[in-house]
Amino acid sequence: MAAATRGCRPWGSLLGLLGLVSTAAAAWDLASLRCNLGAFCECDFRPDLPGLECDLAQHLAGQHLAKALVVKALKAFVRDPAPTKPLVLSLHGWTGTGKSYVSSLLAHYLFQGGLRSPRVHHFSPVLHFPHPSHIERYKKDLKSWVQGNLTACGRSLFLFDEMDKMPPGLMEVLRPFLGSSWVVYGTNYRKAIFIFISNTGGEQINQVALEAWRSRRDREEILLQELEPVISRAVLDNPHHGFSNSGIMEERLLDAVVPFLPLQRHHVRHCVLNELAQLGLEPRDEVVQAVLDSTTFFPEDEQLFSSNGCKTVASRIAFFL
């Protein structure tokens, strides 16, 4: 655990980011040379798995399954010098439970430039695929973008946000890139990472968590085996999900379905304290309580889970300071 502590940097910390850059600077010239020697370019790839594990442990509230799955999958993938397929993760859960936060941490701890790295590619349906009538053009562009970037550098991270809003049929063009074939379209792609994020399955996850609470089961006793089938069914039954008619789930191209549980009051409190620490402020009981009092919880009778998770914590803190 001491090693993890040394590797852990506060998320958003300027000093942490400067430290990451300075650590990599000495090796940059050699890495740049390696980049010019072939398609197995790893020039911006600087995995810090102890740092990632420490950050998840300190700052990701209430997500024992997500932490375990993400860390296990990444360790196996990063340590394999010749993976047989890309790493493909699908993150599912209610809004504000940490899906986007985890994807940001992956970029931060795997690539020197984090989300600003030229090897990290973030797609949003609202920004990049806003018009369903242009689906054929989007397919061509997306295939070309993925293929071109993997040709330039096999160590690339592709993030697909709001899969619930992706144009139907678009993700079909990714299917050849996600399997275990040796090459696709002349491109080696087996060292790439694909992350898909959606709210689909969130209601089903919430129901399992609620039933566990009503049965007086400890939250940490909830198993992946309870959640994975209901999430998969929710995705397959949703014609508006990006995986619909893509073959990605049917052909078992996902390495892990990662569930994010709904957050309870003490998890939101944890987020408030983290946010205050990031702002360099001492914990103030009146601010913490004001944020909790302004947060909506459900179901109506139990008032157990936060309706927005930790998504609005930062803005609420600013209001009450």
Automatic annotation (TrEMBL):
Q: Determine if Transmembrane helix is one of this entry's keywords.
A: no
- What are the alphabetically sorted keywords of the record? ATP-binding, Endoplasmic reticulum, Glycoprotein, Nucleotide-binding, Signal
Primary residence: endoplasmic reticulum
Signal sequence extent: 1-26
Q: Give all residue intervals belonging to the AAA+ ATPase domain.
A: 85-227
**Cross-referenced SMART domains:** AAA
Keyword Signal found:
yes
List positions binding ATP. Answer: G93, W94, T95, G96, T97, G98, K99, S100
Cellular component GO terms held in the UniProt record: endoplasmic reticulum lumen; nuclear envelope
List the InterPro entries hit by this protein, alphabetically: AAA+_ATPase, ClpA/B, P-loop_NTPase, TOR1A_C, Torsin, Torsin_1/2
Family that this chain belongs to? Belongs to the ClpA/ClpB family. Torsin subfamily.
Q: Can you say what this protein is called?
A: Torsin
